[in-house]
Amino acid sequence: MERLRTFGIVAHIDAGKTTLTERILHDAGAQPYFGSVDDGTAAMDWLPAERSRGISITAAATRVQWAGRTLQIVDTPGHVDFVAEVERCLHVLDGVVVLVDGVRGVESQTVAVWRQAVARALPRIVFVNKLDRDGADFDGGVAELRTRLECVPLPVVVPFRDGARRFAGLGDALSGAVQWFDGRPDAADAPRLQAELRAAHDRVVDAAADADESILADALAGRRIAPERLRAALRPRVLAGDVVPVLAGAALWNRGVDWLLDAVVHWLPSPMETSRAGLWGVPGAGRPDADLCGLVFKVQHADEVWNFVRVVRGVLRPGVPWVRARQPGEAMVAPELWTMRADRHEAIAEAGPGEIVVVPGEYGLRTGDPVCAPTAVAALPPPKFPAPVLAVSFEPEDGRDLARLTQALRELAADDPTLRVDRDGDRLRVRGMGELHLEVTADAVRARSGVLFHASKPQVDRRETVAGAAAASQEVRALTSGRERSARCQVAVAPTEDDAPAVVVACDGAADAVAPAIDELRALAVAGSQYGPLHGCRIELHAAVGDAAGVLEPLGQQAAAKALAQALERAQVVALEPYVSFEVLCPEDAMTPVVADLASRGAQVAVVAGGRLGGRVAGRAPLSRMLGYVTKLRSMTRGLGEVHLRPVGYARR
Ligand code: GDP
Ligand code: MG
Questions:
Q1: Rounded CA gap, 292 and 323, in Å?
Q2: Is the CB of 101 under 6 A from ligand 1?
Q3: CA neighbours within 13 Å on the CB side: how many for 325?
Q4: Which one of 37, 89, 166 would you pick to mutate in the ligand 1 pocket, going by the greatest count of ligand atoms within 8 A of its CB?
Q5: pLDDT tens-digit readout, 77-106
Q6: What percent of the chain has pLDDT above 70?
Q7: Rounded to two decimals, what is the model's pTM?
Q8: Ligand 2: distance of its center to the CA of 76 in Å?
């Protein structure tokens, strides 16, 4: 296990994540050719939708060998609409490589995924990519890491530029080693490059001296400090997230990728060194002799079903029974286990703690399921997913295709926990995280089922809450078996601090007798009264009284419903709708119309600033007003503007 490094590469879209992953697979010998995202041969991006859109949607896990270590790479999607993918990846990672575009610097999604990684205490290293491009600025990127990501960046590999400012080589700030891409630089440049490398080395020594006094003493005495010692001093601080090593390169030209792999081995943790929380907080975690326990972090329906499992303790073996923690009664046996090498798989004999394996076959597994030894069912913390915010309806052109359409959608939803599917007459209501998410879903369903269907315009999923607190009491009378019976209920509603689904509780009265009324109130809270499901409030049933035994079943339910309706009216129901944070980048001369247009959409603009690439406008807005905004922005900016939206929860208009 000490030899395992499990990491993901996270970045803003187009930073070069897929390209970098391809180079890693090549350099580490897993793949004999270079895949290219530009001509659609990248092995990690293997869903047709990804190839044609040139973006990575599905995370695949793959394994390579490097410097005597096993690296498990989980390719995460670059677009935040695919929140579930990012979340479930981070859940099983031990460390993260953050990729930054050397020209564009730190971008909105870099910030977003960085925060997710910090929240999970995942150690990070940064690779500044695309340094071959005009306008690339390594030092500027490092400065932005400090200001926008609020970390302490420490360049451990620095780029060299020749006399013509071309990206010509790299220097290792710890060892002083250098590599040149096209022969040595001119003698005239040598003193400048040496001085740059020395300055970078001194910064590393300073940082190490902060952590280790003996290094401070040696540095003051002018003694050379071995790279191993510098690393040993700095590594605990990197694992704690206090210092972030920064590397440089150009993935497209395979520059700096070898040193990045060395850095993964040097700086990122093995499972033994991760903080003992989350998956690794489970008793016996990391021990191969413990009872098997592993987490299913991805289920993928392709031609067959692939279940991606990270083993936490014990050993998973083909032919040896295991159970799903949800239905421990039914023992499963997997005839085969695979490891992935890009788009190929290899059968393996066993998988121990820390390893990621594919269990091929349909076992009814879902993302977040633990798989366990039959005698020792354990719980593992599952990844958490946000609720969907946007809905579309799919209606088949031929009604007879509804079943096929449903089947294809249900399979996709089984793979993607942020996708929900409900039947609505002849249509299917599909809910997801954003416009792109739903478009990609529609494409995938078309490809999978071959069914022709019409997709409606997307609509936001609204919710409701109460403006204040109120109570009401209602009585219902009816004739039952020739006698008049009555039931009375008193219901109170009050807002809560959180934005969770409404909670329904019985306050006094016999718990058994009020059960039907409580059930009725729960159903009504989920259905909502005007806008959508009730959230952020507490519903209390104070009294439910019938004048005879058994009366509460039908009459008490009606009385509870009437009392709730009246209480809600008194408390005043208000709509909640999903909000997004936005970041718009556009040419400076388009800023005025862009800001005016955003204001007309009810946006709260928090930042208007000049940036590296022109203007930057950021803030938050109701999602419903931002639908179709990408197209509008392009037309306002001659195609030069771009926007990034990110769901930030529900709020009142
Ligand atoms: P992803 O969205 O993060 O997966 O990014 P891709 O790997 O798809 O790359 C986006 C674009 O950037 C592609 O056109 C790549 O060829 C290009 N690219 C990636 N790395 C480099 C680099 O080091 N230098 C240059 N000039 N282009 C690069
Ligand atoms: Mg990609």
A1: 10
A2: no
A3: 19
A4: 37
A5: 656 556 667 777 888 899 999 999 999 999
A6: 91
A7: 0.79
A8: 8
